């Protein structure tokens, strides 16, 4: 008999899984990161969803109360001597222009992590044929992803220190903190992320059912710890102990 293919991802019963408060998870994670720089390793959230395999995916960007990465290099495609170019540079863009950007990209010099385009430069960008180079890297500006805009200054300011997340194989992963963050910093970031994610789920739930199944916290060099939603447990170490450098 032909095996029936699953339409959903396999989920395990969390009643049989050990779950941790935020402070306890941070304590164990920090033990795996001893000796490493508090800014070199990151805390990362893994949100496992109950969802269809072939349904629409969640994708969004938000600025956390305590930004995880503030050294993001942003390229802005817009007329080089325009007001938009001036605003982009003031907002923190590292590369601004049209022909100069096109030449660098075609030469393989792509020294930026985000690329946005002013609406006035879309036609020129498309004629330059950057899609085959930037597309596979996920850098090609697109109106659907909010990277083709009129107000480039505002967009750059939102991107600097912002974090992106996207559902893949029923899991959403996003950095939510640096090892040097305090438990209170982490709590505020996690709360902001979860509130935004729940809004995303509510918007998409009209078309397909999505529910949060498990929330896992890990770091660059640690395993994952399933969170139970509590800030600390009765046996947690004092919060100030988790606020000290490793």
From TrEMBL:
Gene Ontology CC annotation, any one: mitochondrial large ribosomal subunit
Protein keywords: Ribonucleoprotein, Ribosomal protein
InterPro entries per UniProt: Ribosomal_uL1-like, Ribosomal_uL1/biogenesis, Ribosomal_uL1_3-a/b-sand
Entry's Gene Ontology molecular function annotations: structural constituent of ribosome
Superkingdom in the source lineage: Eukaryota
Stretches of the chain forming a coiled coil according to its record: none
A Pfam family reported for this protein in Swiss-Prot or TrEMBL: Ribosomal_L1
Family: Belongs to the universal ribosomal protein uL1 family.
The protein's name in its UniProt record: Ribosomal protein L1
Organism: Delitschia confertaspora ATCC 74209
């Amino acid at each position: 008999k032909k095996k029936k293919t699953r339409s959903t991802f396999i989920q395990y019963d969390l009643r049989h899984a050990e779950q941790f408060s935020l402070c306890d998870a941070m304590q164990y994670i920090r033990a795996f990161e001893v000796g490493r720089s508090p800014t070199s390793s990151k805390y990362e959230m893994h949100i496992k969803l109950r969802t269809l395999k072939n349904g629409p995916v969640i994708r969004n960007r938000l600025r956390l109360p305590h930004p995880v990465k503030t050294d993001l290099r942003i390229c802005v495609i817009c007329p080089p001597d325009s007001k938009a170019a001036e605003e982009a540079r003031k907002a923190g863009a590292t590369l601004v222009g049209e022909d100069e950007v096109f030449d660098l990209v075609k030469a393989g010099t792509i020294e930026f992590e985000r690329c946005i385009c002013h609406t006035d430069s879309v036609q020129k960008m498309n004629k330059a044929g950057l899609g085959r180079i930037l597309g596979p890297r996920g850098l090609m500006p697109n109106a659907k992803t909010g990277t083709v805009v009129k107000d480039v200054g505002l967009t750059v300011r939102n991107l600097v220190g912002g974090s992106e997340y996207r559902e893949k194989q029923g899991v959403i992963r996003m950095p939510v903190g640096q090892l040097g963050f305090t438990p209170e910093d982490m709590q505020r970031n996690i709360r902001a992320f979860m509130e935004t994610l729940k809004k995303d789920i509510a918007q998409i739930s009209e078309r397909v059912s999505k529910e949060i199944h498990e929330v896992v916290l890990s770091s660059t060099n640690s395993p994952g710890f399933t969170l139970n939603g509590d800030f600390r447990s009765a046996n947690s170490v004092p919060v100030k102990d988790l606020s000290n450098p490793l």
